[in-house]
Write a sequence for this structure.
């Protein structure tokens, strides 16, 4: 935690954690302002978690999230009013402190000399040059002036973004490419299910962002707040402007924990966990190991979600542990799915049902988790059916694995790039934007109706790279995406049903059935998941080596 002082009343910092509240109290702070919206990163604590920790230390806490793309004058006015009324000194934070510093400068712009504001921000380590431009331009960013320009700009440094940059650089090594991402850490998220089962160590799923950004690509360590596609411009936090000739949008999706009432207050305790967050996956394993009897609940929200098989994978691996330890007969396993089927591709359901029967798991379809009471160990679901009104179902639990509702990030949903559902609106074959022909999208955030998995991004990255090169006249034929996605369904420790499919549920196996039959649980698929896929991810996919992922060129 690195606190920077702006004035006697206010200091700012990057993201703080619940355990930091004791030190902040000891340092003399009396109130906390959170300017970071929930769900920006997989390892980010929620505002409610932080508020609870602040309250325990008798610190006042105010949640004033700056909506992505909308750091408006009204945001600054609200910030100024809040700061005026709070006990001081106060600490404001966001992801890096830049948002909070920008708000402070804007809130005080009419009462303090501009050089004093910029000097205080600079002394704290924040460049507010973009604020000067914004004030001089009546509060609107002049997008015709750029802080930097690139041949290709990639928004998002996750699996999709890094792989796309590497594939693009391999085809056009002289291209001036930039990746925009504020994170310091790059995660191998497909490994978190295995962390939650005690198979992988959490540390093995982490690399620094600097280590995975391709050599020759500029990393802009900042958050995107808005797009101006008619001006070929991306607006960054702090009001900086980056121009592009071609744009690739792949920031992933948002885990919307707050959509389940009471969830954020109890995550990581009271038997409430989720493999969808880096810091919680080890807690899943802790709960599984310690449970000897009682009720274990696993939930799945409405689609789309990241890796549609992950909710039931957590159930299978947990139940397998209890089965092997002789505890399963004393544990009631329940799977509560907002949807109406176990898995969206029917060919794989028979194999999965064999394990549902083996573990005596109770399947509860059309049950959507809407609220949770951690201390009372109660979950509440809305149950729907075609012929009856919706009803609320109360379920007691000893442990519960929650898959959070998911959606596109706020700055995507409010942008001109989004379709009516909030996803980046692309042609499902070319992955090119339907309106802006110099923009492409891939990964979880694009509107293509494929499974949102890392395996899908591995196939999509070379296709987008190829099609950008076609647009640059470096290639002649368009590459086409067939919707490929893969979901290694870990049904027990040592066996996996390797689901591989494309648009419309068409089966797209990578191996002949005599080598690996994807419709059946096999040890070969487990070996692939445990031993082969992680190094392929780090050393092939992210490096632009397109093993078994060469694009289909037509």
């Amino acid at each position: 935690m690195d606190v920077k002082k702006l004035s006697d009343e206010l200091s700012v910092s990057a993201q703080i954690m619940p355990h930091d509240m004791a030190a902040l109290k000891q340092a003399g702070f009396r109130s906390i302002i959170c300017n970071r919206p929930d769900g920006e990163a997989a390892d980010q604590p929620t505002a409610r978690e932080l508020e609870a920790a602040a309250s325990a230390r008798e610190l006042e806490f105010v949640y004033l999230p700056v909506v992505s793309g909308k750091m408006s004058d009204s945001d600054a006015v609200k910030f100024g009013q809040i700061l005026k009324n709070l006990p001081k000194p106060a600490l404001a934070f966001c992801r890096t402190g830049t948002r909070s510093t920008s708000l402070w400068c804007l809130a005080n712009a009419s009462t303090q000399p501009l050089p004093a504001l910029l000097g205080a921000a600079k002394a704290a380590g924040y460049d507010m040059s973009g604020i000067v431009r914004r004030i001089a331009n009546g509060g609107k960013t002049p997008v015709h002036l750029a802080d930097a320009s690139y041949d290709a700009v990639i928004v998002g440094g996750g699996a999709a973004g890094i792989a796309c940059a590497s594939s693009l650089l391999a085809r056009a090594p002289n291209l001036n490419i930039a990746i925009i991402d504020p994170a310091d850490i790059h995660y191998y998220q497909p490994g978190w299910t295995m962390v939650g089962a005690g198979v992988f160590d959490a540390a093995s799923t982490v690399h620094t962002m600097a280590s995975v950004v391709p050599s020759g690509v500029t990393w802009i360590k900042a958050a995107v707040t808005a797009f101006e596609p008619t001006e070929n411009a991306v607006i960054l936090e702090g009001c900086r402007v980056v121009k592009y000739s071609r744009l690739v949008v792949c920031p992933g999706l948002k885990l919307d924990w707050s959509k389940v009432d009471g969830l954020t207050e109890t995550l990581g305790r009271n038997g409430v966990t989720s493999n969808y967050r880096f810091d919680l996956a080890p807690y899943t394993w802790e709960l599984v190991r310690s449970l000897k009897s009682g009720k274990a609940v696993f939930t799945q929200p409405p689609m789309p979600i990241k890796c549609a098989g992950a909710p039931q994978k957590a159930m299978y691996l947990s139940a397998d542990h209890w089965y092997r330890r002789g505890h399963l007969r004393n544990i009631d396993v329940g799977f509560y799915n907002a949807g109406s089927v176990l898995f969206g591709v029917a060919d794989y359901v028979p194999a999965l049902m064999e394990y549902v029967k083996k573990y005596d798991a109770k399947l509860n379809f059309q049950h959507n988790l809407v609220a949770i009471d951690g201390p009372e160990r109660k979950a509440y679901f809305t149950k729907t059916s075609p012929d009856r009104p919706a009803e609320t179902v109360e379920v007691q639990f000893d442990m519960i694995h929650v898959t959070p509702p998911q959606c596109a990030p706020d700055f995507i949903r409010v942008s001109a790039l989004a379709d009516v559902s909030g996803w980046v609106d692309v042609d499902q074959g070319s992955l090119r934007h339907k309106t802006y022909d110099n923009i492409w999208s891939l990964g979880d955030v694009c509107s293509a109706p494929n499974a949102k998995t890392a395996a899908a991004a591995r196939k999509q990255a070379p296709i987008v790279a190829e099609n950008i090169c076609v647009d640059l006249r470096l290639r002649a034929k368009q590459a086409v995406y067939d919707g490929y996605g893969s979901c290694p369904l870990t049904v027990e420790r040592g066996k996996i049903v390797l689901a591989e499919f494309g648009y419309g549920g068409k089966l797209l196996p990578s191996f002949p059935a005599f080598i690996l039959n994807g419709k059946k649980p096999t040890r070969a698929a487990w070996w692939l998941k445990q031993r082969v896929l992680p190094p392929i991810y780090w050393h092939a996919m992210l490096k632009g080596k397109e093993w078994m992922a060469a694009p289909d060129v037509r």
Notes: Residues 257-406 form a domain with the FAD/NAD(P)-binding domain fold (CATH 3.50.50.60). Residues 84 and 381 are 41 Å apart (CA to CA). The chain has 16 helices and 28 strands.
